[in-house]
Amino acid sequence: FHISEGEILGIVGESGSGKSMTALAIAGLLNRGDISKSGEILWEGKDLLFAKRSELRKLQGKEIAMVFQDPLTGLNPLQKIGWQVEEALRVHGEKDKAVMKEKALEALERVKLSDAAGVYQMYPHELSGGMRQRVMIAAAMISQPKLLIADEPTTALDVTVQAEIIELLKEINRENQTAILFISHDLSLIRRLAD
What number of CA atoms fall less than 13 Å from residue 31's CA on the CB side? Predict the structure, then answer.
């Protein structure tokens, strides 16, 4: 498949069909030594499937970001939310703590968390499922990546919160021209979101 700038592409399939494996491969998150590889994953002319780990690290979190299905397992229970949202900035060389905090608070506000400063100081277990998923989206979007991979990000959420997250993803797409690869087994959800 091909995804263009600003496009929302939906991938639908039953459990075990390879949706998440595809997403992890694009994001460079598979243990590359343990798999046989064929084909290509082209990102602006570079083949990510055979790229060096150092090249992938330059893209991860900066140009390509990922939001996982279960934010509770995607967040570190021992670290405060602010530290986790700032992680992509640290990995890509930001050292100024005040700058990182300001950007993290902006990211938390952008995902419509009403008390961003309070959430910044909390631990994951202190937040609801919907709030944790918003935190994961804030962390993914802090570096304004060109591609956001959303791997069934609403599966564990109730219908109302699910609708809010879908609207948030549409808004991110509209405002930033972020391409979104949205993975789901829910056809009606894909119909509401994908181009």
Answer: 2
Q: Tell me the C-alpha distance between 29 and 102, whole Å.
A: 28
Q: How far is Cα 120 from Cα 13, in angstroms, rounded to an integer?
A: 36
pLDDT digits (tens, 9 = 90+) for 79-126: 999 999 999 999 888 899 999 999 999 999 999 998 999 999 999 999
C-alpha distances in Å from residue 77, one per residue of 80, 95, 130, 141: 8, 23, 16, 20
Q: Is beta strand 64-67 parallel, antiparallel or unpaired with respect to 46-47?
A: unpaired
Q: What share of the chain is helix, strand, coil (3-state, %, to 5)?
A: 50, 15, 40
DSSP summary character for residue 69: S
Residues 74/68, Cβ–Cβ less than 8 Å:
yes
DSSP string, 110-177: HTT-TTHHHHHTS-GGGS-HHHHHHHHHHHHHTT--SEEEEESTTTTS-HHHHHHHHHHHHHHHHHH-
